[in-house]
Amino acid sequence: MIDKVVSSAADAVADIPDGASLAVGGFGLCGIPVALISALHDQGTTDLETISNNCGVDDWGLGVLLSDGRIRRTVSSYVGENKEFARQFLSGELEVVLTPQGTLAEKLRAGGAGIPAFYTSAGVGTQVSEGGLPQKYDADGAVAVASEPKDVRVFNGAEYVLEESVTPDFALVHAWKGDRHGNLMFHATAMNFNPLCAMAGKITIAEVEELVEPGELDPEHVHIPGIFVQRVVPVEAGSPQSEKRIEKRTVSEPAAIGEGN
To answer: Can you give the pLDDT at residue 8?
Structure first.
């Protein structure tokens, strides 16, 4: 078996060119490949197309690339936490393909499974299927690019819209544990979109919190087998890239003495 470990995040992303398409794991700020995104930012790669549930926040995750104008187009589901994202979209600087979350997940999964397209009920009867959803504005605020109508068919009396799968040039994912052969385990909710992105990418790069030797991972607990992964990068504990941020911290006021049960 091939040892897929790369010494640094910088080396792992060094061949990602301008204009590449990237599937990026994570949900909000949970399970995002911060080290790989940071390395990509440091090397100056630009004109990117990202496929990700969201586009980070203003100063973290994909938001770092976005704020420097490195992302040309994004396919996303939820973009409400990034003010710079909204500004770029409404000013005509960024093309956005808003996609129902389950549809986005299946686009990635189907791409990894070799399925070119599939039918889903999500979006039937809306601009998702009928076309006309704004994807890019011009400088004056007029719609410059709108979505095209999609094929709709009836199965068992219900309508379904045809969606095409995605197979981006690269995938960047964050895993809890990984071995030298590229077998990966994800922890709790950090699993989110990471396995789907890992399947879909033509070249998948995984940053891992803990690198183990082949045979140390229980095969029954492996979430993504190494056949989907081409590069593995250990992320040093305590480094800035290992920080795990909370998108929204919500706390309650402590109860007064004597209150409650």
So the answer is: 96
| CA pseudo-torsion sign 192, 195, 196, 200 | positive
Q: How confident is the model at residue 258 (pLDDT cuts 50, 70, 90)?
A: low
For 29, phi then psi, to 5°, come to -105, 15
Phi, psi (rounded to 5 degrees) for 192: 10, -115
The total of other beta-carbon atoms located within 10 Å of residue 213's CB is 9
26: left (phi over 0), alpha (psi -120 to 50) or beta: left
Residue with tokens 């995104």: 37
Residue 108 confidence (pLDDT): 98
Scanning the structure block, which residue is given the tokens 């930012």?
41
Residue 261: how many other CB atoms lie within 10 Å = 3
CA 233 to chain centre: 18
Residue type, 93: E
- DSSP readout, 148-199? PP--EEEETTEEEEEEE----SEEEEEEEEEETT--EE--GGGGTTHHHHHH
Global pTM? 0.92
Q: pLDDT grade, residue 79 (50/70/90)?
A: confident
Rounded distance, CA 77 to CA 50, Å?
Answer: 12
